[in-house]
Amino acid sequence: xxxxxxxxxxxxxxxxxxxxRLTRSIRAxxxxxxxxxxxxxxxxxxxxxxxxxxRGDDRSTVLxxxxxxxxxxGAAVPLLVDYRxxxxxxxxxxxxxxxxxxxxxxxxxxxxxSLSGLWTLAVVPLVATAxxxxxxxxxxxxxxxxxxxxxxxxxxxxxxxxxxxxxxGWPLVGFYxxxxxxMVVFSLWWWDVLVAxxxxxxxxxxxxxxxxxxxxxxxxxxxQGHHLQVVALQLELAERVLAVDPSSAAEHVRAARASVxxxxxxxxxxxxxxxxxxxxxxxxxxxxxxxAAGTVAEATADPDVDSAPGDVLGAxxxxxxxxxxxxxxxxxxxxxxxxxxxxxxxxxANDRAGGADxxxxxxxxxxxxxxxxxxxxxxxGTAGSGGSGLDGLRRRAAEAGGTxxxxxxxxxxxxxxxxxxxxxxxxxxxxx
Amino acid sequence: xxxxxxxxxxGMIRSALAALLRLEPDLxxxxxxxxxxxxxxxxxxxxxxxxxxxxxxxxLDGVEVAARVTRAVATRCVVITRHARPGVLRRALAxxxxxxxPKSRGADEVAAVIRRVAAxxxxxxxxxxxxxxxxxxxxxxxxxxxxxxxxRRGETTGQIxxxxxxxxxxxxxxxxxxxxxxxxxTRQQAVLRxxxxxxx
Lengths: 432, 200
What we know:
The structure holds two protein chains of two kinds.
Chain A: H1 14-55, H2 59-85, H3 91-116, H4 119-130, H5 139-160, H6 162-165, H7 170-241, H8 246-271, H9 279-292, E1 296-301, H10 310-326, E2 332-340, E3 343-350, H11 383-386, H12 389-399, E4 403-408, E5 413-420
Parallel strand pairs in A: 1-2
Antiparallel strand pairs in A: 2-3, 3-5, 4-5
Chain B: E1 2-7, H1 11-22, E2 27-33, H2 36-46, E3 50-54, H3 62-72, E4 76-81, H4 86-94, E5 99-102, H5 107-118, E6 123-124, H6 126-133, H7 142-150, H8 157-164, H9 168-182, H10 187-197
Parallel strand pairs in B: 1-2, 1-3, 3-4, 4-5, 5-6
């Protein structure tokens, strides 16, 4: 059985996995966008170099244009990183950080432009780099249009210069140079759209959660309103009969207390109705709590733990861990959950803390068996005690077709619960 | 006779609980405190056997009071709360709280827990424990949670750094790690998220 000290928290949790997948595809899209933009810069540098080569320029000039193009494309990388990581509000900070990249682009333009004598080569690097800055909303589009007009104009001016216009590659130079800025802007726009969609998805999730909360609030209001009315009536009755029949009055007061307990339990059930954690998370939480209580705790779990019958085993984990915690934790505790021949086996063992007569996994929950004589009618009926103690565990396990085995010796107390693989609902522990 | 200190900022609950506990023959309520600071001062002065502390109090909360008191005098602390935020149990256990129970328990049960704790045992309510185990796991480290807790009322980075005796740069690093882990844009959002999940 492969084991892990820390059962993975989100494996098997479908919403979490979906979010993870989405996050991954957003990251992939980002790489696609960023690499695409750098690649566009590189292609343009190659187009320029080949046009110059065709024109019969020095090999050294061609080389400078190529190598400079590499530096220019590289200078786009920090801008792209900033574009993704800096929030929109940090415009000023982004500008200052962008300065080195802009300087590199400008320098490349000056060198390439003066060596080739072409305006296009002088201006395009700076323009194409400038559109990568975070412009205020709407401005980038105008910057792109201006860039198209400017570069087109310069290309026409360059075309008039006799030496250039003749070569075959020249229209291609114009095509790429003019389109570079709009293509970069389009890529970034696409990325912005994606980010906006991602945020909308997150907002949608939050909205659904808020609506659910409102619904629960209404339920709580109805439930408590009903019980409060009952309590008020019972108390009024008690007040009326107090003088004539004290014992009947006491009866009504007890009934009122029971109603209060009912209301409390109902409220709690509402609040925890949708609360559940994957089994792996419950195990990890158990270890956390035991460690916080000063116990040396360790859990081993099958990697496939979240496919185990969570409603049964989750309750078992909660029950046994609570008992170990309550009894002072002790010096050590060991939890393990694994698959064995078609069934799941959970074992919790600890040193027998709390004295020889205490059973760490077995004591009744609720009031710990310590409630005073004549304890209130409803106080025993709280969540834990319904399925608490070894008997509760046995009943739960039997319902799922499983067994409970208790092992005691001088140094160790252990509870082993075995349930068949296919029982119950897999995934998450249902509220008890 | 078990000497008990009660701290709760809600006066009605405090006095009702005190009156009910006084009915128990073996319990003596020696102090009733309205907030955390007062509870610490009284506990240090009187050294009661058991301190019954409300979790939600202005200023110092019940767990913080317990941590300060148990460090200084030989007393045992029970924390009571209305809604048991799961992360609190872990914090309470780590700071040496001996008992943890929800406010919904009757006074007779509270008295039973006081006796138990005074006898040196520990009592963790099963509801609270079940909640804690079903808790969403916090991706944050204890230090990062400390930073969020210290800054939950909008304190500046400098103030957080002074509270935790850290360098401002370290606090900033923790904060940016938190923002990345929770995928939120501001520290405020991170605090809200952590409070919702019961981590702080």
